[in-house]
Each structure stands twice: as C-alpha cells, then as structure tokens.
Design goal:
The structure holds two protein chains of two kinds. Chain A is α/β, with parallel strands linked by helices. Helices cover about 35% and strands about 25% of the residues of chain A. By secondary structure, chain B is an all-alpha fold. Classes of the chains: A alpha/beta, B mainly alpha.
C-alpha cells in the first residue's frame, strides 16, 4: 500500500538564504492529528509551507498518495486535497464572513454546490451563521480563527494544515480552537498543526514531531513525545538557544 | 440662491467625470500597488479615439466610448505584459512603478503629439454646447450626460466587484494577496485583468472628457495632480473614497471658481492634497481602505 503522505529529507530555505530545513522528515497517518513542535527557528512553519507548495524544497520529496508534489503551486496542492491556513489567519478582513467562505470555495465551479457546503459549515459553526454578513475583520480573534479553519472545509480536503492556530488567543479560546481541530479530525480529515505551546498542542494531538535546527529530532505518539525528557532539555535549556 | 444651485450643479457635473478618471487609477493601485502616473495620458488617448471617431465618421462620442474602452484595455494588457508583470516580485515595486509610469506617460504624450500635433481639440456633438434650463438655472447637457454615464459605469464596476467571480478574486487579492493565492486565485491573472479594466476605464473617461474639456497631448500633466489628490484623499485604492472625494472637491472647486476667481479653482485640489497629506495621510476614510 502506498503511504498516505510521505515527507522525506526536506531541505529548504528562502531565496538564496541559508537552509531553514535541513533534512526534515515526518510520518503522517491518515485521519490523525499531528503536532509539529520545536523552538523558534526550528523550521516548523517552513515545513508546512513546503508541503503546501508555497516554498520549493531544495532537496527531499513530498509524496501524497503516490504523487510527487514537487513543483506544484499552492492552488495545485489545494486541488489535490491539501489545505493550508498560514499564521495571521489569512482572512479577507473587509469581506463578510459569507464572502470569505465563498472565497474558500473559489476553485469549485458550481456555485449552488458551494453555497450548499457553506450552509453545512453554518450548521457546524452557528456563530459564523450569526455573523454571516459582518466583515471578518471586525470579529474577535477566536471567531476569526474559527472562520479561517472552517473555510478550509468547504473544499472537503483530505489534509488540513494549521500554522499556530492558537496565536494571540486567550487560553479559553485556545481550548475551543483545539476542540475544532479534534472535530475536523473526527470527520476523517488528517490534521497537521504547528504549535508554539508544545504541551497544549501535544495534549490534543495523536502524533508529535519534534523539529530542531531544521532537522527532525524525533517523533512518536503524542503521549510519548510529551513525556520524553529530551523535550525538557530542548525547551528549558541544556542547550543555549540563540 | 439660484447661483448657489447653479454652481453646485456645475461642480457635480465635473465631479462625475473626475470620479470615473480616478476610479481606474484607484483600482490599479488597490490591486497592483502600481502608482500609475500614465493614467491621464491614457485618458487623453481615449479622448483622441472618440475625437477621431467623430471627426472622421461622425460617430457620437458616447457610441465611441465602448470602442475607446476596449482599445485602451488592450493597450493596458500590452503595458502590463511588457513592463509590470516581470517586476511584480520586486520589493520596491510601488516605488519603481512611479518612474516606470512617468516614462510611459512621456512616451504616450510624445506619440500622440507626433501623430496628432499639440493643438487643442474638443469633440463637438450637438449636445456638447447645449443645456437644459430649469428657471434660470442651466444644466449643460454635455456635462450632464458625461456625469450620468460616469455614474453608470462606476455602478457597473461596483456591481462587478461585488458579485462576479472575478470581482471576488480582485477584492480578495487586494486585501490579502497570499491568502488569495492559497485559495486558488491566479493572482497574476487578477493583476492583469484589473490593470486592463483600470486602463479601459481611462479610455471610457477619455471618451467622455473629449466633449467636456478641450484637450491636447500634454494636457495630462494638469490632470495627474488633480487625480492624485482625489485618490489620496479617498484613501489610496478605495473606489468609493475616490468617488466621494471627486464630488466633494469638484463642488468646492466650482465654488472657488465662481466666488474667488476661476484661476484659483484648480488650487482647491492641490490645497486638499496638501492638507490631507499633512493631517490625514491615510485618506479620509480610514486606515485600511478597500476597493468598495
């Protein structure tokens, strides 16, 4: 059987700059929540960008259901079922919630089907229905993040990737965001998320991947990673982090 | 009282045309961050299109308007492909476009001058010099038609941006280019289309201008400062802001012209630009303007 998503030996960087990722890999299991953790500058966001096709890998390969994604643009990976929510939410602040959701279904050629799916989203996230005609930029941080995550579901992706969904949100709201992540996974969607708050992220994940200095330090079930002594070392010193 | 109404009407007529001139400029800046100093020279090119249609074949400038729009949109596609597309990733793109479009403006001016000479022209359909009278107040037909057609075109543009698929893509790209690309919008195509639409609007504005103002190839220098003041005041990239600024300033300019002296009328726009830049550089309508 072909592996669902294979991420192997990824080396990547921006422009002519130094390699941010230097041979990173990760195991991805269909339908599970994967949390990528590591100190600042470890290359967590960069890894998601490479998978999404926003940044070309200098070396290594991303193979999704037997197809090498090398050279594909973000819209092409999206058509293959990989959706990405970058940091800072990526909403259109002066468009309404409904318009934002319509943009989420931009590549669908069937407006009726698109609006039907938006209606499903509204059923699952009643707060978005309530705010349907409000400008996205005027909502609270948590509501905006909910919208950004819900928007990916319009295309019924197989993989969704969230870059720090908890960024800048109050602890209570962060828990709500992770509840949404779990809910998405329960629909059979594979989730890859980057999290600064390692403990929080791992508690809500099935699988943990630890990056440091562009390499995969180790990976394992979220429980194992959470209790691994190397995590303490990585985050609390033992090695000087610049 | 009558005179006040009269001056207001003349101001509104002028405002309609300026609004159309400015909205193309706003659209191009909003989506592409191109500061298009060549916009007024392209308006003049549109005016010449209507002028020759009338002069040679007697075609009404309002009928020539779609022709000028399509012709200028095609020129827009060409300019975009040759000059703007390949540089779009440069970090100093906006700054660079100022110099680039300045050069394009001079080339267009030179070309029009070489072909058609620098004499003053005006398209003269019968309504250009006619007027409606309501009591003692007169409404020049030329300005009235130009203003109404401008409003119609801006209305169509607004509906297009609000409801069409490409309109969604254009607005999304304006607000968050990366996010739009992630959702499958071909942002380069959106850039090309909005540039073509913006320049097409210059063509339409030109056709209307051709019977409202007399024009000659170098006339665009007068307009660029006026249009910049409208666009800056409206909050760079906001079409609604530009339209409001156009009417507001044109009416004020009409009053200045009537009561202070016509030579001071153009000063209104420069003074407004000066004050806005000094006290409210983000424009009148907020920090992050939007196309609509």
């Amino acid at each position: 059987m072909t592996e669902f998503l294979k991420v192997e030996g990824i080396t990547a960087g921006y422009g002519d700059g130094p390699a941010i990722l230097d041979g990173a890999h990760m195991t991805v299991q269909q339908g599970k929540v994967h949390c990528i953790i590591g100190p600042n500058g470890a290359g967590k966001s960069t890894l998601l960008k490479v998978i999404a096709g926003m940044l070309p890998a200098r070396k290594g390969e991303v193979i999704f259901k037997g197809e090498n994604l090398k050279g594909l643009r973000p819209d092409q990976t999206l058509r293959r079922g990989i959706a990405f929510v970058p940091q800072e939410r990526a909403l259109f602040p002066k468009m309404t919630v409904r318009e934002n959701l319509r943009m989420g279904g931009y590549i669908l050629n069937d407006d009726v089907e698109r609006d039907r799916r938006i209606d499903e989203i509204f059923d699952r996230f009643p707060i978005l229905r309530e705010r349907a005609d409000q400008h996205a930029g005027t909502m609270s941080g948590g509501q905006q993040q909910t919208l950004a995550m819900a928007r990916t579901l319009i295309l019924r992706p197989e993989i969704v990737m969230f870059d720090e969904p908890s960024l800048g949100l109050a602890p209570k709201i962060v828990r709500e965001m992770f509840a949404i992540v779990r809910m998405i996974a329960e629909q059979g969607v594979t989730v890859l998320l980057v999290e600064q708050n390692a403990v929080m992220g791992l508690k809500h994940a099935d699988w943990g991947v630890v990056l440091d200095l562009g390499r995969t330090l180790f990976e394992g079930s979220a429980q194992e990673v959470l209790h691994d002594p190397r995590i303490q070392e990585l985050y609390l010193g033992g090695r000087k982090v610049a | 009282m009558e005179q006040i109404i009269q001056v207001t009407i003349l101001g509104i007529g002028l405002g309609g045309v300026f609004a159309l001139m400015g909205s193309g400029l706003s659209l191009v800046f909003g989506v592409m961050r191109i500061v298009n100093l060549a916009h007024p020279s392209l308006i003049i090119a549109g005016a010449f299109t209507a002028y020759w249609g009338f002069r040679l074949w007697g075609i009404d400038p309002l009928v020539m308007l779609p022709v000028a729009t399509v012709l200028l949109a095609a020129i827009g596609v060409l300019l975009y492909k040759v000059f703007f597309e390949r540089n779009a990733k440069s970090a100093t793109y906006s700054e660079m476009t100022v110099l680039l479009t300045f050069a394009i403006a001079m080339i267009i001016e030179g070309a029009l001058g070489a072909m058609f000479s620098n004499t003053q022209r005006v398209t003269s359909p019968s309504y250009a010099t006619d007027a409606f009278f309501i009591g003692n107040v007169f409404i020049p037909k030329g300005q009235l038609y130009a203003g109404l057609v401008s409003m119609l075109i801006i209305g169509l543009l607004a509906a297009f941006l609000k409801y069409s698929r490409l309109g969604y893509a254009i607005r999304a790209t304006t607000q968050n280019r990366d996010a739009a690309a992630l959702l499958g919008v071909n942002v380069n195509m959106v850039g090309l289309m909005s540039f073509a639409i913006g320049i097409g609007l210059a063509g339409a504005a030109g056709a209307l201008t051709s019977f409202v103002f007399s024009f000659f190839p170098a006339k665009h220098w007068e307009w660029i400062a006026v249009l910049m003041s409208l666009v800056v005041m409206g909050g760079m990239g906001s079409i609604v802001g530009t339209v409001i600024a156009s009417f507001g300033l044109s009416i004020i300019a009409a009053f200045v012209g009537a009561y202070v002296g016509s030579t001071w009328s153009t000063m209104t726009f420069f003074l407004a630009l000066f004050l806005v830049l000094l006290f409210r550089p983000q424009g009148l309508f907020g920090e992050k303007p939007e196309l609509l």
